[in-house]
# Entry
Amino acid sequence: MSFIRQIHDTHTASPNSKNFFRRLYKQKTMHIIALLFVVWSIIFAYIPMSGIYMAFSDYKVIKPIFAAPFAGLKYFQQFLSDPNVWAALKNTLGISVLNIVFGFPIPIIFALLLNELANVNFKRVIQTVSYLPHFVSWVILGGFLINWTSDTGLINDILMRLSLVKEPIFLLGEPKYFWGTAVISSIWKSMGWSAIIYIAAIAGINPELYEAATIDGAGRFRKLVSITLPCIMGTISILFIFTIAGLLNSNFDQIFVLKNTLNSSASTVLDIYVYRMGIQLGRFSYATAVGFLKSIVALVLLLITNKVTDKLTGSSFI
Amino acid sequence: MDPRKVWPHIPFFSRKEQVIPFRRIRRKKVKRKPGEVVFDTINIAFMVFIFFITLYPFWYIFVVSFNEGRDAARGGIYFIPRIFSLDNYKAVFQNGDLVNAFILTITKTLVGTTLHVFFTGIVAYTFSHKDLMFRKFYILFGTITMFFSGGLIPYFILIRNIGLYNSFWVFIFPAMFSFWNMIIMMTFFKELPSELSESAKIDGAGFVKTFVAIILPVSMPILATIALFSGVYQWNDFFTGVLFTTKKELMPIQTILYKIISESSAVTMLTHVNLPDVVAQRKITSESIKLATMVVSTVPIICVYPFLQKYFVKGIMIGSVKG
# Structure
């Protein structure tokens, strides 16, 4: 008995630092694997983050990033007085706001309406079909649009037959149609996929709530407004926060494919401007400055929207 | 403990859950008010409209790609080909550049997805151990990368500096991990019964062996989810090719399609078609070949995704709840 206690005492009476390294050694495989991820993140995420120094310096291509002479806020001043940046901002905000005003409610409405369908099989078919556009790349969709908006393309064909227009309209060739085309095609592509979250949230509502409402004499519409909507308000709020935080972002793949020299006054959004200035024209420091400010604003927007939504509905992300 | 017997008991993908989470309303035979009947009719009509407007664009392109090129340029084809022709597809499959691009796309999708699922998975499994030292630090490390990034320009310079420019691996290495997917997998692994790993430890298996032999077979549902997300990303990604490759052999089919569609300078790529008599009669046009290429690039995904619905619906739910 005492012999066992002796062994027990020597094995558990070690000081903490010895325990620490012993535990670390026992977990060594796990830490090696975790280190894989850490190294990868440093290379592909954190080193580019440090490249933000380029926004504050006169970066020269032939020299490494940190060898560049410090330039302070020079490039920030430059782009704040550059009318192209403000034009790009206008395009970005225009498309984003339209996307939010029209594109945010539509998946919600779609989910609510889908939920009201009686036939389960019909529901499934519609839902399956609805997210087909999500799986197709913007290159393909861009190809669709370009094919249809040509002079003999489908859209002009239908419009002319219905006598809505006298001549073919060149949807992708004129700036005034670009925002609309981008927003409508974006909604078409993402409606079904975005609705998945809402459909899942609606499915998670306790059915007893509906039964109690029926007993109280509530009709279908009343149930929708008083039970379904409030229950998914949390989901809606969180997604709304993300959407607002992405106000300065744009669907890069989409705009990149749909843009051309004819519609560029309407299609140059901030991300495209950064691409053109940086990759195509080689003005690295300038482009990095624009991109950096954009992500700071996005972060601020995220925090503000989070606070506001928290006060309004009681649910928040952070 | 036989891993195969664990599958029904994993709550994450319980068989009792429906494929698509709809709640079943037991509609008693209550007479519907006339207002409700009107609403239901309009709703059904609306859904049929959605059905049509979602599918018709694909059907249109499909139909026109099977139509003779020059005839198709006249327009007016809506539901079936006017002059059926397989020439467009013959042109696509006989064009060496396009075939190479397809092979490259398939390769990068297979390699990229396999590596992504394995590495993201094994790191997610590591992070799902609550007793992992520094766990909070690791997770914070990953979370920061989700919110903040250096932007396009520093990333571009990095890829050039580490020698991935014009290399096949530019499609693979940057896509090897995704913290978002890691979170989804972590959630899944946490719900696995601990007897699994314990019995493996008793049998003397090391960490990696446990992962490969025990955890992976049992985690097929979540692996399918992540594989789908990663596969779709790899298949559809065109921008990596645009930014980081200049050699034709390294351009996946989406990048080539992009160049054909948006940059008319690459139309010359399509003129190397080995059907001299057909070209002479100008029965195929660059437009019709374009459409055939688009159909071939899209059909694989369209055929696959309906069968994996259960997985990505669940994946999205977990990702958004946890995220």
Remarks:
- The radius of gyration of chain B is 25 Å.
- Chain B is about 65% helix and 0% strand.
